[in-house]
Amino acid sequence: MNVIFENRFATAPLDVKHYDTEKLRQNFLIDNLMQADQLVLCYTHYERLIVGSAVPVKAPVALQTVDALKAEFFLQRRELGVINVGGTGYVEVDGNQYELANKEALYVGMGCRNVSFHSLNAQEPAKFYLNSTPAHHAYPVQHVRMNDCKKLEMGALATSNERIIYQLMIKEVVQTCQLQMGLTVLSQGSVWNTMPAHQHDRRMEAYFYFDLTPGQAVCHFMGEPKETRHLWLGNEQAVVSPPWSIHSGVGTGSYAFIWGMAGENLDYHDMDKFGPDQLR
């Protein structure tokens, strides 16, 4: 098994004003996730969040450390969030197995040494989406099912943004150091995942888009509220959103997305909103 690792440095909003399409994609788009029998890791310098994936098909995929972490094992100074977007699989953590159905999550705390990812059926492999952040305390492993999380019903069909937000890893559900994760599923006929758009200077965010039908795409909006940019994303691609950037998207068809956050504030509702008439 190979580890595909990439290191992404932070960017300043003044610089991003001058980026063309290709440079925007190089800095913010993650388009190599969900590769069979590979551990894919993208280390960002925004809160040092790692975005990754593991798809075990022929064999289990182990969570391996990389030289850039300067750590004896991956979770020596980190915590990990896992959400399965494929067939049923399980995560083995220090000899204990946690079976994850589609859209279920697992929190793995700092200090866990041996973590590996497995599929129950190679014909319908599990697809594990990963977020990892630095940690200061060892919190226990916790399996989060859809019935365990908090649900928020947001938006309306009239504004094309009716959706359910499943808060899988927020402070009211799971104890973490700084990592928060969840997923949003849009109602049939709705296309906007977050409107009004928002930003939060106290933390960064990453979006992972999935369950797009072939040939469909999502246009993800980023940048400062009065200096916006956009990226076109396909199925099972992710985008990194700096603290100074808004994050909102609209799809050409039905889709879902996973949001992951890291930073100093664990208050989910700590955000600065910008209505459509305020964006430029």
TrEMBL record:
Matches recorded under PANTHER family: 4-DEOXY-L-THREO-5-HEXOSULOSE-URONATE KETOL-ISOMERASE
Protein's recorded name: 4-deoxy-L-threo-5-hexosulose-uronate ketol-isomerase
Protein's UniProt keywords contain Ribosomal protein: no
Pathway: Glycan metabolism; pectin degradation; 2-dehydro-3-deoxy-D-gluconate from pectin: step 4/5
Family to which the UniProt record says this protein belongs: Belongs to the KduI family.
Record organism: Rheinheimera tangshanensis
GO annotation, biological process: D-galacturonate catabolic process; D-glucuronate catabolic process; pectin catabolic process
Class of this enzyme: isomerase
Keywords carried by this UniProt record: Isomerase, Metal-binding, Zinc
